[in-house]
Design brief:
Layout (H helix, E strand, L loop, with lengths): L9 E5 L3 H12 L4 E4 L3 H8 L4 E3 L9 E6 L4 H9 L13 E4 L5 H13 L3 E4 L2 E2 L1 H7 L2 E7 L1 H14 E6 L6 H29 L4 H8 L7 H12 L8 H18 L4 H18 L9 H7 L6 H5 L3
Parallel strand pairs: 1-2, 1-4, 2-3, 4-5, 5-6, 8-9
Antiparallel strand pairs: 6-8, 7-8
Length: about 300
């Protein structure tokens, strides 16, 4: 077992993607000392250009950090960051705090909390929501659960990164449970917004007009209002990718299987995102789920001729 660190002076943020980079920058601008970590050179350079310091591997954070935010894609990456060959768990000082911010299965979050407690570490189950813009502004919603000691240590970080902190329980798992409900709704709403726009276009309605009407009517949703402009502009630059919802809705169904709980509406949304990924749109913005309808019905999406040669 590697020797553990004995003191810490910085907050580590592992994962400098859209959400992680924004969060790390918000912490930095709040006056906290922050060290970012990402295997991607460009991500590290982006954070350094904002005044932060960065390293390429999690183990390099351990000697300087007593609080580490894990802002990665999935449970497999969380496992690697914490327990892999260059992982943190054996190297952080006792009493250090791990804030687990990725969307993972509640059962995994609960188990992770138990394993970290056994290793002498604190864990805050702290999945985040709000998108890259709110991450950058320090205005995220944090769905959290953990011990009083974990909350006490996390206080300055939560204050800097979040507009709202929901305290949902005293053990890890509750935060991830609520985040899973949020992701179920978000995925269903995006898929429904795409289907609604595709239907309107198929009926010959001007898509911009349709957007204006729906956003002022009872059928509106936050996701409709936020994602449909991507469709209207024909801009599928990924802010949150199709494959993220393939992952998250699969976690929804993994949890449903564990509970013997049927979710037919979210199952349908998962199939649409899976179809979009299978058609080659997995790394595009999640609004690209609308392209499934383009393939099925031959509708012409805004800017489709420029983007896909009219396919």
């Amino acid at each position: 077992m590697a020797e553990r660190a004995t003191n810490a002076a910085t907050i580590g943020v592992i994962g400098l993607g859209a959400m992680g980079l924004g969060t790390a920058t918000a912490l930095l601008e709040a006056g906290l000392e922050v060290m970012g970590c990402d295997i991607n050179d460009g991500a590290r350079q982006a954070f350094e250009s904002r005044g932060g310091t960065s390293v390429a591997t999690p183990v390099e954070l351990a000697e300087r950090c007593s609080i580490v935010l894990v802002v990665v894609v999935n449970a497999e990456q969380v496992e690697s960051v914490l327990f892999g060959e260059a992982g943190l768990v054996d190297r952080l000082a006792p009493g250090s705090l791990v804030m687990q911010c990725a969307t993972v299965a509640p059962s995994y979050a609960k188990s992770l909390g138990e394993r970290l407690e056994a290793a002498g570490l604190l864990m805050l189950d702290a999945p985040i929501s709000g998108g890259a813009a709110k991450a950058r502004q320090g205005r995220l919603s944090v769905m959290s659960s953990g011990s009083e000691a974990a909350y006490g240590k996390a206080g300055p970080v939560l204050e800097a990164m979040a507009e709202t902190v929901h305290r949902l329980g005293d053990v890890p798992g509750a935060g991830s449970s609520v985040k899973l409900v949020n992701q179920l709704l978000a995925g269903v709403h995006i898929a429904a917004a795409a289907e609604a726009m595709a239907l309107g276009i198929r009926m010959g309605i001007d898509p911009d007009t349709l957007y204006q009407v729906i956003t002022q009517s009872a059928g509106n949703s936050w996701m409709f209002e936020n994602r449909v402009p991507h469709i209207l502009k024909g801009d599928y630059t990924p802010l949150s990718a199709v494959d993220i919802f393939v992952k998250d809705l699969n976690i929804v169904h993994q949890t449903g299987r564990e509970l013997a709980f049927s979710m037919p509406v979210s199952a349908s949304a998962l199939q649409q995102f899976t179809a979009a990924s299978g058609a080659g749109f997995g790394r595009e913005d999640d609004a690209a789920v609308v392209k499934v309808y383009q393939r099925l019905s031959g509708i012409t999406l805004p800017a489709a001729n420029d983007e896909e040669g009219g396919a």
